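User: Structure tokens for both sequences below?

Assistant:
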Amino acid sequence: MALTTHLFRYVDDKVRARGSSYFRNGSVDIIHGNKEELQALVFGTDTYEVEIFRLEDAVHVACTCPFFEGERVCCKHIWAALLAAESKGYL
């Protein structure tokens, strides 16, 4: 089962919709990816750095956008990067 399927219920509907739009518009540039980690740039109002890695059964995420840094929850940039990773068979 895809990682986004597992995480779907933990991410706000609006965040998923906006992140999906970023992904569809080609706003994600994967810098490095494999089965355990991903580093990407997501282009929006600014360019944001996203890091995602798996450690055992946990998924750890980080984004340089103000929303993530303030709320510490999944932002649209992280969701877009997750979708891009999934499309390449990463994570």
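Moving on to the next sequence.
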Amino acid sequence: GHSFRNVLPAFQYAPIDLAAVCDLDIERAEVYARQFGAERAYSDYREMLEKEELDAAFIVTSYDAEGEPQSWSIAADAVSAGVHVWTEKPQTGRPERVEELMRLCERSGKWVMVGYKKIFFPAIAKAKEIMARSDFGAFTSMYCRYPQALPPMEERPNGRRMIGFLDHIVHPMSIVYYLGGPIRSLRFLREPRRGATVTLIRFVNGGIGTLHLTAGQSGTSPLERVEVIGEGANLVVDNGVHLTYYRPGSRGTYGRSTSFIVDDDQAPLVWTPEFSLGQLYNKNLFTLGYAQEILYFAECVLENRPPERAGLAMALEMAKVFQAYLAPDGEEVVINP
């Protein structure tokens, strides 16, 4: 269902020839093949890998009985068969499995990209660009919020109980990692009624951050907010689509300024989409980064270069972060010594 709504429709914007579709339900596979122009349909991905001459495979699956993403073993089989892989997040919450997949990629000469769509949001991509500017200065601190509950300590060893957390923690954390860099350590406190958490983060580069998982917020509230502070400048991304860059500037002398209007060269810059015109950028596939990440993956395959964004190095970091949330509340967990 997710592939039907968000992944396969994005292929029309990328240099992809869909050769075959595979699903455990062969009738659904055949329907999807007709819908999206594939020539053949399969109910066994191993048969598909054996019979088809593929450059790449896209894997969009669910979880097994233990709460582990099924995509991990399928990706391993595809890489071993000599095929590049794009797999929907979260890949796996076990660092050792990511490392095993890394070794398979090294032996086969193929590679894996994970669908961390949020780092391909136009607003997040622009935020990354702004952070590299000299006027923004070095990254110093960050705040990120996202509505997600963490189960109580006694339930965390149960993989099935942690599916929701594993599935969603990569959304805010992929942004945190993409903008702030590798995480040195983190510690969190959990609220017991709804499972909200506040996490303190220290980055390898010396910056600090806070991740507020706002379980208990209204369902009508915007999901997320990111704010990054530099040196005399900051930026805010609201709800994934509204970006404000507060450039270096001054409000004037305290108690003496007669107007809140600042000079044009100091005024904030604001980007927000409109939804009236039939533009690509106001389609869900583009505002949510699906089209951009799939196009990026396709270009990497065509140029035979491993992805710099959303590769297995990032998947390893996300798996380590997930493991950190299995620790007791308040305990500092070192991610990268």
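User: Anything stand out in the second?

Assistant: The chain has ten helices and 14 strands.
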